[in-house]
Write a structure and sequence with these properties.
binds MU-OXO-diiron; 652 residues; 11 helices; nine-stranded antiparallel sheet; binds calcium ion
């Protein structure tokens, strides 16, 4: 497929955009603006004779609106713009905590940009930080001043890491040494951090500090795909272990204190002739091409599909790591399905089951949830460690009437039979996209984070954009053609608000929360006001604060200049008069995206990841030198600490 995009680096990140779903799962609807009519009905509940199919939705809204009306956010939103540095709302501080190359492990060398090596990188903070999880110390406490920071490193920008490269020539010019650095810069970092007064610092010789990489970290394959014939390679004839993880985008935190890290655009790392014809359809469904975006197969056979046709099946999973145990062998939890995992919204349901909400970040892909078979045991941390190996994976199907169902992806259920190529549950999870196609799931506008709001109990699915959606393909839940700006939907479990919501249920309701974009220029829809100063584009990752407010990180890709606003972190109420009216809290430097928003339990610190500052430019001529602003230093992806100057709660 030809990709027209001015930045190759963004091609790699946004290969999410390519879209490989050619099924005809065109769920419902001709009625594109049903959302608007539902909204109007909801706002003016005095309207009599509303269509019958809306009545339950209205009742639910009336119930939700009985929640205490929360005070509106007190800070003044900062202005839109694009420049070389970052910006935060008045009254707050933004301090750099961790940059690419910062030494984090005992005896690490200090960062030497001009002589970077894989062995140095192995002990240093990795590249392109994304998801952040905060784990209090000691384990099980709510300590907000001392903990472990778990940070994903999604991908690399070789043209910003090494001199002499650009987006066009890097595939040909990258050396084995440079690729070794890249493979060591991917994955994950676990770093002990401590707060003294108002400032956070890394505990640099901590025995907790750890790097997980693509190059050298052994992982176990667990759950239904373990030992599957499609998971076996010459290196691992049993199909039970694999070296490394890659393209770790967002993630999640479990109630037993482990981190889940998502393997997103894994297809970019593999290439070569599709010799194993039995796999061609599966390769195509996952966007594999004979020419890999990352030229690792030049030096490492395992990325060459013609030589190792199954290695690629060992990527595209959700990986679990126990950050409190430095010797823990990471586990690829295959029960959660194989797709371009964005993140994991983990919920401890009221009945003790664990529910994990997940998005497959590509145009026209699906929203999934996993429900554990076993229940969480609060008194035995280690007793929960393999809970994600057994349960049911579901995929979402939306209807135009505000209802949605979760369809189980189970071997021998419906079309998931040997006649359609499934011999067992391992095959179902390895080919989760195909299973979801056959079940009739609803193709969405690039599902990114899917997270439950602990206060109101609704689940927010972030749909970043989809410029390939045509008028013929719009439906009630993806209501805009050429959706450049993205939108956010609410999925509403039955059972009540907050902890009463039943996340194991198979029927939910849904509604549209926001249609993003510039309200003066298009059909964007925010809350009940026409004066939305801090409009935004391309919502991506999210988190909630103690009050249930939604914090949204944006990722416009290479379109920043086109729209004239940088990426950043926006906050909005999810209830009351401020509902769905965004305010801009923090803005990233030029050509960066905003990732990883994460609060400490006391909500007095927020960690964010500034990913790929300067992307689209080069090492030799960078568009910014944030955060060091030193002529000898390139821009560096970094974790930033946000605090309130009066030591108060963020957003209070
Ligand atoms: Fe890595 Fe879907 O963003
Ligand atoms: Ca990203
Ligand atoms: Ca993302
Ligand atoms: Ca994204």
């Amino acid at each position: 497929m030809t990709i027209k995009n001015k930045y190759t680096a963004r091609i790699i990140e946004n290969s999410d955009d390519i879209g490989s779903n050619d099924t005809n799962n065109k769920p419902m609807v001709e009625i594109a603006d049903i959302f608007l009519s539902r909204r109007n009905l909801i706002k003016t509940t005095s309207i009599v004779g509303a269509a019958a199919f809306l009545s339950s939705s209205i009742a639910r809204f009336a119930f939700a609106d009985n929640l205490e009306t929360l005070p509106y956010i007190t800070f003044e939103g900062i202005s839109h713009g694009i420049d070389e540095t970052h910006h935060i709302a008045k009254g707050y501080n933004a301090d750099i905590l961790l940059r690419w190359g910062d030494p984090i492990i005992h005896n690490a060398s200090s960062f030497d940009l001009y002589n970077q090596t894989a062995s140095a990188q192995k002990k240093q903070f990795g590249y392109n930080c994304d998801f952040i999880g905060y784990f209090p110390l000691p384990a099980g406490s709510q300590n907000s001043n001392h903990g472990l920071l778990c940070v994903n490193h999604e991908y690399t920008n070789a043209e910003l890491m090494f001199s002499g490269l650009n987006q066009k020539n890097k595939k040909d010019l990258l050396t084995k040494q440079q690729i070794d650095v890249e493979m060591m810069a991917l994955g994950h970092s676990i770093v002990e951090i401590k707060k003294t007064g108002m400032s956070w610092a890394v505990v640099s010789d901590s025995s907790y500090n750890r790097r997980i990489t693509l190059a050298d970290t052994k992982m176990l394959i667990t759950g239904p795909a373990a030992k599957n014939v499609h998971m076996q390679t010459s290196q691992d004839p049993k199909g039970v272990e694999v070296i490394g993880t890659l393209n770790n985008c967002a993630g999640g935190v479990t109630p037993w204190g482990t981190v889940l890290i998502a393997e997103e655009n894994f297809n970019n790392f593999f290439g070569g002739t599709f010799k194993d014809q039995t796999q061609t359809k599966s390769y195509e469904r996952y966007g594999l091409k004979e020419e890999a975006e990352y030229p690792y197969m030049k030096f490492y056979d395992r990325f060459d599909l013609s030589k190792h046709p199954n290695e690629v099946n060992r990527f595209g999973w959700m990986v679990e790591i126990d950050p409190y145990d430095p010797n823990f062998v990471p586990r690829k939890r295959t029960a959660l399905g194989r797709f371009k995992h964005e993140g994991a919204g983990v919920v401890l349901n009221k009945d003790g089951h664990i529910v994990v909400y997940m998005g497959d970040d590509e145009r026209f892909e699906y929203i999934y949830k996993f429900v554990s078979k076993n229940k969480f045991i609060p008194t035995n941390r280690h007793g929960n460690i393999d809970i994600l190996d057994d349960g049911i994976l579901y995929v979402a199907k939306f209807s135009e009437n505000g209802k949605m169902v979760w369809l189980p992806l189970l071997f021998n259920h419906g079309p998931l039979t040997p006649e359609n190529g499934f011999e067992n549950q391992g095959d179902v999870v390895i080919h989760a996209r195909k299973a979801a196609d056959l079940m009739g799931a609803t193709p969405m506008d690039r599902p990114e984070d899917v997270e439950a709001n602990p206060v109101n109990g609704r689940v927010y699915a972030i749909l970043t954009n989809n410029t390939k959606r045509t008028n013929e393909k719009i439906d009630a839940v993806n209501p805009r053609a050429n959706n450049q700006a993205g939108h956010i939907i609410e999925m509403i479990p039955p059972g009540g608000i907050g902890k009463n919501a039943d996340h194991t249920a198979l029927e939910y309701q849904w509604d549209i929360f926001i249609l993003a974009g510039d309200p003066s220029k298009n059909d964007a829809k925010y809350g009940a006001t026409s004066d939305v100063k801090d409009w935004f584009l391309c919502p991506d990752n999210c988190t909630f604060d103690q009050k249930g407010r939604l914090w949204i990180a944006t990722d416009q890709g290479s379109d920043q200049a086109q729209f004239g606003i940088g990426d950043g972190l926006y906050v909005m109420e999810t209830e009351g008069s401020g509902k769905a009216i965004p305010q801009l809290f923090y803005r990233v430097p030029k050509d960066a995206e905003m990732c990883g928003p994460c609060f400490t339990p006391d909500n007095k610190t927020m960690f964010v990841a500034v990913q790929h500052p300067g992307e689209g430019s080069t090492f030799d001529n960078p568009s910014t030198r944030w955060p060091d602003f030193n002529d000898k230093m390139v821009p560096r992806p970094s974790v930033v600490v946000l605090t309130k100057q009066d030591k108060g709660i963020i957003g209070s």
